[in-house]
Every structure is written in C-alpha cells, then in structure tokens.
Amino acid sequence: MTRPLLALLLTLALPLHAALNDAPDFSDPVENTRYQHLIQNIRCPTCQNSNIAESNAPLARQLREQIAARIRDGESDSDINRWLQERYGDFIHYDPPLKTQTLLLWGGAPAAMLIALALWLAGRRRKIVARLTDEEKKQLQQWIEEAS
C-alpha cells in the first residue's frame, strides 16, 4: 500500500520540482518583484492568450531566462519592454501602447458595438406598416358583413 502511494506522490511532485527549478534566484526582492510583474504582463508569442509566466513553451522559457538576465544586468523595465516590443511587436504586451497602428485594436470593438447598436435601433424604428389596397379593403368589408 505504501509503495503505490509513494509512487503517486513522486509522480505528482516531479512537475512541481521542474517548476521550482525554472524560477531564477534574485538576491534582491525588488528584482524578484520586477521579474514577476514583467513575466505576468508579457504575452507568450507561441501560446493562445497565455502569459510567459504560465506557459511551458520553449520560447516562453527562453524569454523568462532572458528577462531575468536583463534584470540582473541592471536594465530597467522600460528597456526590457522596448526590447521585447522591437523583437515581437505590440502583440507581446497585453496592454499595447495607443498609437496609429494600434488604434483599430483599441477602438475596433467599441466602434463595432456602437455600429451594431445604431443598426438595431434603426431597425426597430423603421417598422413597416402594411397598407391595404382598395381591393383588399373591399374584400375585408365583405367578410365583416358576411360574418355579422
């Protein structure tokens, strides 16, 4: 009974061990905080909507290592962000800067919602009232008289 339980615990502990070994050691807690903040806010270029902190993709691991090395070398957060943006474009950030290239990204969804709302309201206001022709009015009057 203890051997299967021990095997299960070892199997469950291996991924945790790998994750702990992946985290860099910083002597300064401020550097560690900067590192954690950066990797949480940088999108993984190979994953669907995942940051590099959560991704196990090889590229995400490389980026984490490079960010840690750049922090140790004394680069500022803005320098690291600029380097990432030059290399991967605005996509790398979850919060891209507002400029002409990203204007559609920032304003596209609200503009589409406003257009959809305007079309919906216009459709509701434009109720088509069907008018009866003279012949249809006579036929209707005949049916009413026959029914009474």
TrEMBL record:
<dbReference type="GO" id="GO:0046872">
    <property type="term" value="F:metal ion binding"/>
</dbReference>
<keyword id="KW-0456">Lyase</keyword>
<comment type="similarity">
    <text>Belongs to the CcmH/CycL/Ccl2/NrfF family.</text>
</comment>
<keyword id="KW-0472">Membrane</keyword>
<keyword id="KW-0408">Iron</keyword>
<dbReference type="GO" id="GO:0005886">
    <property type="term" value="C:plasma membrane"/>
</dbReference>
<dbReference type="InterPro" id="IPR051263">
    <property type="entry name" value="C-type_cytochrome_biogenesis"/>
</dbReference>
<feature type="domain" description="CcmH/CycL/Ccl2/NrfF N-terminal">
    <location>
        <begin position="7"/>
        <end position="142"/>
    </location>
</feature>
<dbReference type="GO" id="GO:0017004">
    <property type="term" value="P:cytochrome complex assembly"/>
</dbReference>
<feature type="signal peptide">
    <location>
        <begin position="1"/>
        <end position="18"/>
    </location>
</feature>
<keyword id="KW-1133">Transmembrane helix</keyword>
<keyword id="KW-0349">Heme</keyword>
<dbReference type="GO" id="GO:0016829">
    <property type="term" value="F:lyase activity"/>
</dbReference>
<protein>
    <recommendedName>
        <fullName>Cytochrome c-type biogenesis protein</fullName>
    </recommendedName>
</protein>
<keyword id="KW-0812">Transmembrane</keyword>
<keyword id="KW-0201">Cytochrome c-type biogenesis</keyword>
<keyword id="KW-0479">Metal-binding</keyword>
<dbReference type="InterPro" id="IPR038297">
    <property type="entry name" value="CcmH/CycL/NrfF/Ccl2_sf"/>
</dbReference>
<feature type="transmembrane region" description="Helical">
    <location>
        <begin position="103"/>
        <end position="122"/>
    </location>
</feature>
<keyword id="KW-0732">Signal</keyword>
<dbReference type="InterPro" id="IPR005616">
    <property type="entry name" value="CcmH/CycL/Ccl2/NrfF_N"/>
</dbReference>
<comment type="function">
    <text>Possible subunit of a heme lyase.</text>
</comment>
<dbReference type="Pfam" id="PF03918">
    <property type="entry name" value="CcmH"/>
</dbReference>
